[in-house]
Structures are given as C-alpha cells and as structure tokens.
Specification:
The complex is a heterodimer of chains A (344) and B (328). Chain A has 344 residues and is of the alpha/beta class. Chain A is built from 13 helices and 8 strands. In chain A, the strands form 2 sheets. Chain A has a 6-stranded parallel beta sheet with strand order 2-1-3-4-8-7, sandwiched between helices. In chain A, strand 7 (222-226), helix 9 (230-245) and strand 8 (251-256) form a beta-alpha-beta unit. Chain A is globular. Chain B has 328 residues and is an alpha/beta fold. Chain B has 2 domains: 5-194, Rossmann fold; 199-327, Rossmann fold (3-Layer(aba) Sandwich). Chain B is 36% helix and 20% strand. Chain B has helices at 8-22, 46-50, 62-74, 93-100, 103-106, 136-140, 153-165, 214-228, 247-256, 271-280, 306-312, 316-327, and strands at 5-7, 26-30, 55-57, 78-83, 116-121, 146-149, 170-175, 182-184, 199-202, 207-211, 233-237, 239-242, 259-266, 293-297. The N and C termini of chain B lie far apart (48 Å). The chains are: A alpha/beta (344), B alpha/beta (328). At the A-B interface, helix 6 and helix 7 of A face helix 3, helix 4 and helix 5 of B.
Amino acid sequence: MENFFNDLINPNNFSEQIDIQGFKEDKLFYFLRQMMLIRLVENKLASARRDNIIGGPVHLGVGQEAIAVGVASNLNKSDRVFGAHRSHAHVLSMGADIFKLFAEVLGRDSGLSRGMGGSMHLWDQPNGFYGSVPIVSGTVPLAVGAGIAASIQKTNDIAVSYFGDGAMEEGVVHESLNLAKITNAPVLFVAENNLFSSHMHISLRQPSSMLSRFAIANNIPYQVVDGNNIVSISNAAKKLINNLRNGDGPGFIEAVTYRWYGHVDWREDVDVGVNRSNMDIKKWKMRDPILRLKKALLDKNLIKENEIESLENDLNSAINHAWSKSLSAPFPPKESLLSRVYAK
Amino acid sequence: MQNKLYNYGTAILSAFEYLLEKYPEVFVMGQGLWSPWYVGNSMTNLDKKFGKKRIIDTPVSESACTGAAVGASLAGLKPIVVHPRMDFMLYAMDAIVNQAAKWSHMIGGQANPCVTIRGIINRGGEQGAQHSQALHAWFAHIPGLRVVMPYSVADARDLFIASVLCKDPVIFIDDRWLYEQEDTLSPIVELDLKKEGPKCIATGKDLTIVASGYSTLLAMKAKDELEKYKISAEIMDLRVLNPLDSSPLIESIKKTGRLIVIDGGWKNCGMAGEVIAAIVENLDLNHFKSSPQRITLPDAPAPTSRELEKIYYPDVHKIINMSRFILQ
C-alpha cells in the first residue's frame, strides 16, 4: 500500500483517462454533471471573492471534486455527513440547492444557515448534511457521535466525517478513531489528503505522509485511493459503506488529491506555499478528475464534445440565475443577532 | 414514598432513572460509568438497569466523548456527558465552546445541540491545583450555554431533568461537598429550564447573600449563625448562572440594602463580580446602605497542604465577619 501511496503523491503519475469499465452510463453522466456543477460553482465563488462581492473567506476545493461526489453517490439523505472548512463540494454533493449555498456565502436570510454561517458554517440536514465548521477537526468527534446515535436509534444510517491532512495532527482525531472503533460506530472517515495544511507541505508536518497509518493503528478497515479518480472513490466508498451498514464498525478512506487554489480565496498561493510551485500545480491540473472522466467518456464514445459544452452551458445558466437571485435576497433581520443564540 | 429521604447524590440518581425510563432518546457517556466509585452514589447501577449501550463508559478521551455527545444531539438524541472531575473537562473545551454553544446561532436556529454536560466539582482532601477547580464562571461567560448549579436536593434532581429536556446545551455543575445533604422530595414535575432562575430560599431584612451550589450551603449555615448577632440575612440561590436573571436579586437588595456574594470560584472576572455588576447597573445607588462585597477564592490555584486549604476556601466564618463588617 505504501508503494501505491508514494505513486499517488507524485504529480507526474495518474494523468491518463480513468477506467470506467463496469459503470453504467447514467451513473457516469451523473458523476460528470455533479463534478462540473461543483467546479463551476466554486469558480463563481472565486471570482466573486476576488471582486469583493463576497465579504468573508472562502476555502475552495477546485480539483478535489471527485471525493465528495464519489462518496455521496453511496449515501442516503438519512445519513449524517459532517464537513470542515472546505466543504462546498460536500454539501453540494448531497444535493444542496445552489441558490441557498450562494445566499449563505453572501450572508442572506434564505441561505443554508439562514445567513448566520457564511461559507465556513454550512448546514443542510434535510439532505443529510449535518454541518461543517472551520475549527480544524471540530466535526470529527461530532460525526462519531452521530454514528453512535445511529446505532442507538437502530437505524441503518451511517455518519461521514470529512477532514484533511492537517486535521490528522489534532489530538481529537486520534481520540475519535479510537472511540469509533471501540463503540463499533458506523462512521466513515474520509481523509482528503491534499498534501497541504494552509501553506505547509505534509512532509514538513508529519514523519510519514500516509494518513492511513492511523487507521491501521486503530484496526479500522481502510482504503487508499486516487482522490482524482471518481470511479476509484465510488468503488472504495461503496465497499466500506456496505460493511458499515452491516454493523461492522467504522471505515477509513484516504483520498490523495490536490487543491488548485491556495488555502483560502482565489489565489494560487505559490508565494506562501512551502514546497508548492507553479510546476506542481500545472502537473496536478493534468490529473484533473473531471478531465480524466471526460477523456474516458469521449474515448468510449459515450459522449460528444458538443454535449459536454451544452451541459456546461446549462449548468452555467442555472448558476448565474441562482447567483443573481441570491444577490437580491434579504439579509437576516436585526433581531436574529439575539434570537438565535438559544433554541426557540 | 413521599417521605423517602434522598441525599443530593441519590436525587441525581433518581433524575437519571426518570429520564432513562421515560425518554428512549436519553443516553449517557463518560468515564467511570461502569464503576461503583467514580461519581459518588449518583449513578449507581444505571448500566445494569439500562444496558451498556445507553450507559457508555468511555475511553480516556474527554474531547472526543464530549464532541460525540454534541454530534449525537444533532442527530436527534438527548445525550448526557459526565465529567467526574471538572478539571479534566478542559480537554473538551472545543466541543463545548466552539461547537455546542455556537451551532444554534451560526446555523440560524435550525440546529440545536441539546446536550447536557455534567461537570462535577471535586476538591479538598489535599487534592491540589488540578483536582479542585470550580469553573462555572468560564462557562457562564459563553453565550449559547445554559449553566446550572443546584444547591438543594430537590434542584439536584429537578434542574437535572430540566437540563436534559432543554433544547439548548447545558453545563450542569454539581458539587461533591453537597452529596451528603438530605431532604424529602415531592413527585417529579418537569420544569422548563428557560423559566428557572435565582430564588429566595430564606427571607431576611438586613442583608442579601447571593450564592450558588456549595456556597449557598455556606450562606444558609451563616444565616443561622448571624441570628445570634441579630442580623437577619436573606439568601438568594442563583441556580441558573447563564443566562443570568438579575431581577429577583435586585428586588431583594431593594428590601435589604446590603449585598454579599459568595462564590467558590476565583475573584478576577468571576461570577461574584458579574452578579454585583448586574445588580449595580440596574439599581439606583441610593438603595445601597453599604458597598456590595464578595467572598471568593483568592486568585491562586488550590493548594495541597491542609493548612493552606483551610484558608483557601470561603467558609461560614468569613461570611459572618463580612456581614458584621458591612452592618457596622
């Protein structure tokens, strides 16, 4: 597994089309559509942030779309998904309304969190997204609790905890892995290893870059996957989630990926990145999860160039419509400053 | 049945039993729950009666366990986390302060972490700095948390039930120095925590003493002593520290004109200072016959040596002296 992992973190590898054999067309089209939607939404947020239309920070995950889409393709709306600071993809992959996401990022009352959370505190429980917060690792134990709750409630639902390689350095993640295992809680830990925490490369932060070593330490079944291969993610998640639903306790996916933008907002952060160069970004863009799926679909004659173009146009027009609607949506009423501190 | 004598610990036990029997969504997690000696007599045999699935004795992981309880509450349960000693609860501050306290507001009122976090004050006996702390003022500082600190045996049971049934996160703080207090209890009536607050538990005309938890017990003992000096003290038990409703306190000062606040926490930025400020800023100064005073811990960690312990904690003697001083 370590050899495979070392191949994965080398940006010269895995830029070819992905192997889509065994996947139904409609599933593949769904993957493509979802990943493109997330990409276009995040690029919209990037430009609006650059233009200062969005006032607060946005943590963009462009380049990492395959992970959320691949995992979510195996989830139900009654499952309990927790995100972190970089979670637009996580909430959209569960089916969140793009208008509500935009309205939230713009601090409007009709937003996902009623304009009280912004990009970093997202919530869409009706779609199974229980929440995201920017305290690194803050939601990891919450997901374990939602998993423990699922087993007390005797449902078949599972909890999902998305976190990054930086979170792995927080003590509570280790407590959470241990707690989930010892209570046999149905929790899928999804470690998105994009090799950077803020400005700093993982090799400068951890003695080994493979996060799964902690799954091994806690005796939790795990998979190391190419995080830019939607088919690998979906397959790995499917296998682990089936086991979770059968009562076999937690599972762990380590998805190796890379973010195209910097830690926060629209810049590439080459100037603040330790071990982050233009050349690396260029190579990782060759491993674009969307491009690799497109190549495969085109190669197998499952889709035509002009069909992809027209899909992109449709998505863009839906995005532009939602965006202009959110720009004119009302802000939270002044009394909400105090009225939402405690439950009604 | 109504004449059965409870102590503070068994009153809490009866609250657990009531909640676990009546509400299937209630479950408990914390360290020592399968052990007979961790939490006094306040949780005896709950695991045998309700099963280890609902009474979870946990790994030594305050942070993850408290966070897990918050997560379980978001998933529709009513979890109770038990920290047998409050000092260790500091490991759980992210789950309490960043998560439990914030979710309602930052999610626009749509998510309510209805978790109860029971922190036990366990001090004295030369346990020293890290086995002694009473940190209620810290938690009372945080908007979004409700902080409950019962003194009476009845409150130990009834405010615990109210805390667990409340939709907000509640820090419920009980004190091992109160566990031997005894009382008979009337049948359980569920209270709405939002409507509970400071209460006058003994009337007087010369002086108002405000306290909470074990400090209220000291105040009650001091009241009896003060009678000998012909000083009639009114005792106000805070019960709920956050949100703090100062109006009953103000009514009492209007009557007595004198105020002493007793608190088992530190002085600087503490509960006693907050109580005084909340009263003074809402009451014309001509109601006061003397300056408000506070009796707290000195601003130092708890000592281990028994000779230092004797002078460290507020006691009845300090209250008598202060009361006589302001009545001079």
